[in-house]
Amino acid sequence: MVDTSDALTVALVDDYDVVLMGLARMFDDYRHRVVVAEINANTTTNDHVDIVLYDSFAQPESDHHEIAELVRNPRADKVVVYTWNFQTSLVESARGQGVDGYLSKTLSAGELVEALERIHGGEKVFMDEPRRAPSAPGLDWPGKREGITDRESEILALITQGKSNAEVAKLTYLSPNTVKSYIRSTYRKIGVESRTQAVLWGVDHGFTPDVHRIDHWRGGP
């Protein structure tokens, strides 16, 4: 039996089940150091946790508000953003709101655990922008099994939420032409020819967010 008496407790916050489960699995070999206290925010809990790990997948348009709410949450000692996006304004906004860490999804499981332990110990850990690299082994996202990349997945998730190309470009800090390129490659991979077909495919394949999850950790139902 694994001794978890000295392990730090972490709540995982995101609106996509597959993203949460993939992230939770990354800690499987580190249960003596990290205990995942909550991944299902539709179940009422009053757990106090050492760290809330906020995964920003497909919800950057509301990150500023949600991060501020998490920082104010009395059940969380520390708040850490876990992301692919290191746009300077986003990092500085998170820092200004009082988050304790800004970590890249390129980190291996061991590196992620080490960073969380440093944050739990009182350090502020803000990574420099990493060179574009594959996400850490073990991470998951909607459409991964169909060959969709992490960035394509996030863009398709935003499209499924009803965002226009211009809105997607603004939210992902990509140029409109880059967004169009990602959309075309995604359409080819999922075998659709129109935005309507892509949205329907997204709804059927887990690209619809469960907004109650983040609402819960912001203090909602």
TrEMBL record:
Keyword Phosphoprotein carried by entry: yes
Residues annotated as domain HTH luxR-type: 142-206
Recorded superkingdom: Bacteria
GO terms of biological process kind: phosphorelay signal transduction system; regulation of DNA-templated transcription
Molecular function GO labels: DNA binding
Keywords: DNA-binding, Phosphoprotein
Pfam families assigned to the protein according to its UniProt record, in alphabetical order: GerE
4-aspartylphosphate: residues bearing it: D55
Domain Response regulatory span(s) in chain numbering: 9-120
Record PANTHER family: TWO-COMPONENT RESPONSE REGULATOR
Stated name of the protein: Helix-turn-helix transcriptional regulator
Organism: Amnibacterium flavum
